[in-house]
């Protein structure tokens, strides 16, 4: 906030690999635009320029990780930063009649979005969380390549090609083992990570991948209400009603990586966690489709994990379950 009674400017930053296009709205129709390189030197120059009149809010689009250095540097300087879904920002631009798309216009649309919508800034991951997230990303990539190569192997007729694919599969499997070792080392290097992972994994159905995905991708776990956390994870059902029509509820949005990990965790929990299993079976007996029941189990599992982290008490001591 500025030193006067009026809030500071609202800033939109369009992010690309090599450049940051910036729009600063100072109230009314007054605005200025400029661009800096998307490297540490350019980001430092941006921070110095913005801190001359500290902004009320800076909004960036999520851009595959290219936004992280700028967002992290600005947040470290005490600037309120919100990283938003590109679809949300683009829908806002279309709603205001701006159909053209350039980097400069995108930055201006983000600044207008910041001023009109004022998305809530959230804490950015610290260096440990970023490291864990990058290793998890790499693990997902390797698993994806393994699935693709194994699928490819089943369709090949040429034995020389099959040999090369089998060799690549063996290499990927070894790389997956090495990546899992890196994940384990990253968790063991932090006492906080170790304690939090132990709490999460005390819940039946929660394995290392789900626990570590939640630690890296959902730092709000244990600090928000179950409803808000479900919306963040993308497992909260949204209404689609109009007049007398009652539409089918559906989940969408949120953090896709968290949702994917929760899906696999709920599949396991529906078999091995007594509370989730009973909940799932009860919903199916009521006539709910199995996938709908499974999404409900994802929400319930997330609520349990949220309570475990909030109360800092493991599953067994809360629920007194027998092994």
UniProtKB/TrEMBL annotation:
Positions of the Transposase IS116/IS110/IS902 C-terminal domain: 198-281
Listed InterPro entries: Transp_IS110-like_N, Transpos_IS110, Transposase_20
Domain spans labelled Transposase IS110-like N-terminal: 11-156
GO biological process terms held by the UniProt record: DNA transposition
GO MF annotations, alphabetized: DNA binding; transposase activity
Entry's transmembrane regions: none
A Pfam cross-reference name: Transposase_20
Protein name in UniProt: IS110 family transposase
Species: Rubrobacter xylanophilus
């Amino acid at each position: 906030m500025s030193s006067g009674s009026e809030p500071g400017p609202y800033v939109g930053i369009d992010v690309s690999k090599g450049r940051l296009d910036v729009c600063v709205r100072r109230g009314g129709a007054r605005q200025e635009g400029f661009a800096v390189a998307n490297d540490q030197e350019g980001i430092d120059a941006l921070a110095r320029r913005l801190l001359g009149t500290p902004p009320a809010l800076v909004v960036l689009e999520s851009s595959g990780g290219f936004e992280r250095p700028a967002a992290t540097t600005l947040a470290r300087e005490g600037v309120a930063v919100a990283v938003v879904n590109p679809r949300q920002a683009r829908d806002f631009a279309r709603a205001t009649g701006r159909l053209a798309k350039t980097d400069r216009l995108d930055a201006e649309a983000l600044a207008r979005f910041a001023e009109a919508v004022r998305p809530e800034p959230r804490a950015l991951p610290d260096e440990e969380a970023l490291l864990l997230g990058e290793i998890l990303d790499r693990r997902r990539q390797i698993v994806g390549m393994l699935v693709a190569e194994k699928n490819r192997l089943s369709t090949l007729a040429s034995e020389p090609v099959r040999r090369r694919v089998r060799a690549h599969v063996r290499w990927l499997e070894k790389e997956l083992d090495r990546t899992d070792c890196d994940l384990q080392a990253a968790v063991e290097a932090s006492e906080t990570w170790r304690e939090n992972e132990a709490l999460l994994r005390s819940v039946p159905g929660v394995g290392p991948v789900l626990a570590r995905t939640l630690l890296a991708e959902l730092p709000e776990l244990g600090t928000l209400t179950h409803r808000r956390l479900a919306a963040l994870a993308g497992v909260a059902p949204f209404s689609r009603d109009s007049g007398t029509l009652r539409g089918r509820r559906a989940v969408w949005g949120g953090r896709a990586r968290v949702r994917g990990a929760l899906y696999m965790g709920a599949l396991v929990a529906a078999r091995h966690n007594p509370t989730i299993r009973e909940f799932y079976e009860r919903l199916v007996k009521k006539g709910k489709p199995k996938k709908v029941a499974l999404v409900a189990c994802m929400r319930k599992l997330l609520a349990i994990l949220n309570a475990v982290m909030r109360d800092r008490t493991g599953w067994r001591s809360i629920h007194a379950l027998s092994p």
